[in-house]
TrEMBL record, chain A:
Organism per entry: Candidatus Avipropionibacterium avicola
Upper lineage: Bacteria, Bacillati, Actinomycetota, Actinomycetes, Propionibacteriales
Start and end residues of each Rhamnogalacturonan lyase domain: 108-270
Name recorded for this polypeptide: Rhamnogalacturonan lyase domain-containing protein
InterPro entries, per the entry: Ig-like_fold, RG-lyase_III
Any GO BP annotation: carbohydrate metabolic process
Pfam families cross-referenced by the UniProt entry: CBM-like (PF14683)
Automatic annotation (TrEMBL), chain B:
Provenance organism: Candidatus Avipropionibacterium avicola
The keyword Signal appears for this protein: yes
SUPFAM superfamilies: Metallo-dependent phosphatases
Signal peptide range: 1-28
PANTHER family: ALKALINE PHOSPHATASE FAMILY PROTEIN (AFU_ORTHOLOGUE AFUA_5G03860), PHOSPHATASE, PUTATIVE (AFU_ORTHOLOGUE AFUA_6G08710)-RELATED
InterPro entries recorded: Metallo-depent_PP-like, PhoD-like_MPP, PhoD-like_sf, PhoD_N, Phospholipid_Metab_Enz, TAT_signal
Residues annotated as domain PhoD-like phosphatase metallophosphatase: 148-483
Organism domain of life: Bacteria
Protein name as it appears in the record: Alkaline phosphatase D family protein
Annotated Phospholipase D N-terminal domain residues: 36-134
The organism's taxonomic lineage, starting at the top: Bacteria, Bacillati, Actinomycetota, Actinomycetes, Propionibacteriales
UniProt keyword annotations, A-Z: Signal
Length: 275, 514
């Protein structure tokens, strides 16, 4: 029975590529899948040097990629119960776009886009304080205060978090804009999410925008705050999306982030950019 | 008897092949492949399963124990004496990398009710010599002396209880589940699992190698045949049938189950009939200890319905959960329930013993008569199925029924009532719950927090929160249960103590302290 992986798809987004493939049936002796990656647009030889992960599932998030965009190619290889490697899948290539944090102009930011929670409130591991200080799941942060990140809790808990009372926490961020950007892009970078994944709902001045699906992450960001630590077990993810005309106002604005489903997210930074 | 030469036929190359004549000290270029020891299990009245798994580097990350991707021939011998001057059976088996280089030899043609010695050989390497035995003949009335163990979490501490259990020289070891724990390494434990949460076959193989490499584990495996069943941590905390802990079946969890089942079989002395195929795995089975006892070994995970009032996996105790009483909810599944009911109905053995995974008796955790707080993972969460089993043995007059349990990391001695809703109803059986070998660390002697459970549940006669194992002897006259404890597992080498003894006279189920 063939143990070559088929159906490999690569979906590229800012700083990440999501790979999926077809699982081989249980009747083959396949134990797990090895994912190999190289910064090229063509096929390459899978080896231990270009192995980026192993899984028994059919999905892999390659994350923390260059801010400036890049080309990445992938092969998925099976390992069977005897330890033998199958033939590599056909190569798939993904073009990772550039982040608005390098192509655009920052209008307003909270935190630094640096893979760390550390500048946020209660980081890196005092999550119990978030529940203690916001027992009703409501957080308010005003950009007018000096150091916005220092008042913004590093986690936004959700219904999957028993320690936070199993609530969909809502953070309301208020800020002033002197002028409305002509091509606004919101950037939300996360240091980590939980193995539950989840959904982040966003309202801009009372209008809902497309909710963001949260990847199933490392579940380590409640205790570790820097993706540069190779043992931290963090899985960063990135959301950059345009805001429709008319959503933002000149003067006072209010954005509400609600962790509607799943477990917490750990903030890296949030910003509004002129694309 | 003439000395029989142990013929060597090995497919190892290099230095090992060059040393085929006679014994040689293992050199660095020819490492010992028996680092995981040997084991035996599933005895019959004329045979037993012999097991080993080859590994030169148990903790190799790929789970293959440092072995090459090649079949290796393994020689085996069974003798009636320790020096192998009287070899009674011998042969060759193949250690296949597809099965993790494990070997399962089903030996037959032995005499009933006898002890034997066995060993394996690969190249110039001899395995440790170990003891095993056959079951008594069908009409024999031999006493049964067994030890029961469960919940040997590596990170909890040292497996001192295994050592003391081995010293008792039992007839058989009953393993009641949580032989390994699947979790990622926790640096706050006394010891730390290398690696992360077990998901792939490679992960689980490596985890079993860690546990099999322990000296005390090997000591107990080498002392007697084992009869094993599992609980949840051989796959994932609180898994139930097709459902993972989080409650929603997924393709990935099916795959994980298949991996874990295969790794369990590869690492246990089980017969061919228990070899898994995908997620099909035959673990429930029966043994007859002559006319003294029938052991109905149960599988309380594979065929279960999802735990009642499932909330995604964060709480397992409920005060208000009417779903528990749904008469269609099953712990054992239809096929196993029918098999057990039929076996209990037909059995003519004096004692019925049910080695199984989770707390059988009623156990109310909330003080006072108004509220109940019951576990949904134990049999209280599958009451109709539990009551059917109990009523079956009671109706057939099997008042000498002993349910053996692990799981809860504490020792319990319980009287099983004809009706748990009526504390005045008669006792129809006994449940002996062994404490954990290591899980939960050292524990607490004379733990006062256990008092409310004792007060709330009159049929629960004794609870203890130290680590250890259960020793039990079934004879024509009665059952003697000895709860053995060790004061510490966070440091090695602790002594053993007989914490409590109960006698159960034959035909009169009830716990008498002795």
């Amino acid at each position: 029975m063939s143990t070559t992986v088929t159906g490999v798809k690569a979906e590229a987004d800012v700083r990440q590529v999501q790979l999926t493939w077809d699982l081989l049936p249980l009747s083959t002796m396949v134990d797990h899948y090895r994912i190999h990656a190289a910064q090229t647009r063509s096929s390459f030889t899978p080896s231990d040097d270009n192995l980026i992960g192993t899984t028994i599932g059919d999905i892999w998030l390659h994350s923390g990629l260059a801010v400036d965009g890049d080309s990445w190619s992938y092969h998925v290889v099976t390992v069977d119960a005897a330890g033998r490697h199958g033939e590599p899948s056909k190569v798939v290539t993904a073009e990772v776009p550039r982040s608005v944090t390098v192509t655009g102009e920052a209008i307003l930011t909270v935190g630094s886009f640096d893979g760390k929670t550390l500048e946020f409130h209660h980081a890196p591991d005092q999550y119990a304080e978030i529940a203690a200080q916001h027992p009703d799941g409501v957080i308010d942060v005003d950009q007018a205060d000096d150091d916005t990140a220092a008042q913004w809790p590093y986690l936004l808990p959700g219904p999957g978090d028993a320690w936070a009372g199993r609530m969909a926490y809502a953070l309301t961020w208020t800020f002033e804009l002197e002028e409305v950007p002509t091509a606004p892009v919101m950037a939300i970078w996360l240091v980590d999410t939980t193995r539950l994944g989840g959904v982040l709902e966003i309202e801009v001045n009372g209008e809902s925008v497309e909710p963001r699906e949260l990847v199933k992450g490392g579940t380590a960001g409640s205790r570790k705050g820097d993706i540069a630590d190779p043992d931290a077990g963090l899985l960063p993810s990135y959301h950059e999306f345009t805001l429709a005309d008319g959503l933002l106002d000149r003067g006072e604005n209010s954005v509400v982030f609600t962790l509607a489903e799943g477990g917490w997210l750990a903030w890296d930074a949030v910003g509004v950019f002129e694309a | 008897m003439s000395r029989r030469t142990f013929v060597v036929a090995s497919s190892l190359t290099g230095a090992a092949a060059a040393s085929l004549t006679g014994l040689q000290v293992a050199a660095a270029a020819d490492p010992d492949p028996f680092t995981l020891g040997v084991a035996s299990g599933d005895p019959s009245d004329d045979g037993v399963v012999l097991w080993t798994r080859l590994a030169v580097d148990p903790l190799a990350e790929d789970g293959h124990g440092g072995m090459p991707t090649r079949k290796i021939t393994v020689e085996w011998q069974v003798a009636s004496d320790e020096k192998f001057e009287s070899v009674v059976r011998s042969g060759r088996a193949v250690a296949d990398p597809a099965w993790g280089h494990s070997v399962h030899v089903e030996v037959d043609g032995l005499e009933a009710d006898r002890w034997y010695h066995y060993r394996f050989r690969v190249g110039s390497h001899l395995s440790p010599v170990a003891r095993t035995r056959t079951l008594p003949a069908a009409d024999a009335t031999t006493d049964l002396h067994a030890v029961a163990v469960s919940c040997s979490h590596y990170e909890g501490g040292w497996f001192t209880a295994y050592h003391h259990a081995a010293e008792e020289r039992p007839d058989v070891v009953l393993e009641l589940g949580d032989y390994i724990y699947e979790g990622a390494g926790n640096e706050d434990g006394t010891r730390t699992h290398p690696g992360s949460t077990c998901m792939s076959l490679a992960d689980y193989r490596r985890r079993y190698a860690l546990y099999h490499a322990e000296a005390e584990t090997q000591e107990l495996h080498h002392a007697a045949p084992w009869i094993v069943t599992w609980d949840d941590h051989e796959i994932q905390d609180n898994w139930a049938g097709i459902h993972p802990k989080e409650g929603v079946p997924t393709d990935e969890f099916e795959r994980r189950r298949a991996n874990a089942m295969r790794a369990y079989y590869e690492n246990m002395p089980l017969r061919k009939q228990s070899r898994p195929s995908g997620v099909k795995f035959q673990l429930f089975r029966r043994f007859s200890w002559g006319r003294t006892a029938d052991l109905h070994v149960l599988d309380t995970r594979q065929y279960r319905d999802l735990q009642a009032c499932h909330d995604g996996g964060s709480t397992w105790w409920f005060t208000d959960c009417p779903e528990r009483d749904d008469p269609d909810r099953t712990m054992l599944g239809t096929r196993q329930t029918d098999w057990l009911v039929e076996g209990l109905a037909k059995s003519e053995a004096q004692w019925q013993i049910l080695p199984q995974g989770v707390f059988f008796s009623h156990r109310d955790g909330a003080p006072g008569p108004e509220e109940e707080s019951l576990s949904v993972d134990g049999w209280d969460g599958y009451r109709a199925n539990r009551n059917l089993i109990r009523d079956t043995w009671a109706e057939h007059g099997h008042l000498n029924t002993t349910v053996l349990t692990g799981d809860v990391h504490k020792a319990f001695a319980n009287e099983i009532l004809a009706d748990f809703d009526d504390p005045g109803s008669p006792t129809v059986g006994i449940e002996l719950v062994t404490t954990s070998v290591t899980s939960a660390g050292d524990g607490v002697a004379n733990d006062p927090s256990l008092q409310p459970v004792l007060e709330e549940n009159e049929h629960i006669k004794w609870i203890d929160n130290l680590r250890g194992y259960l020793s039990a002897t079934w004879t024509r006259d009665g059952l003697t249960a000895r709860f053995m404890t060790v004061p510490k597992v966070t440091t090695p080498g602790a002594p053993v103590n007989t914490e409590k003894v109960f006698h159960v006279p034959a035909g009169e189920p009830g716990l008498h302290e002795g």
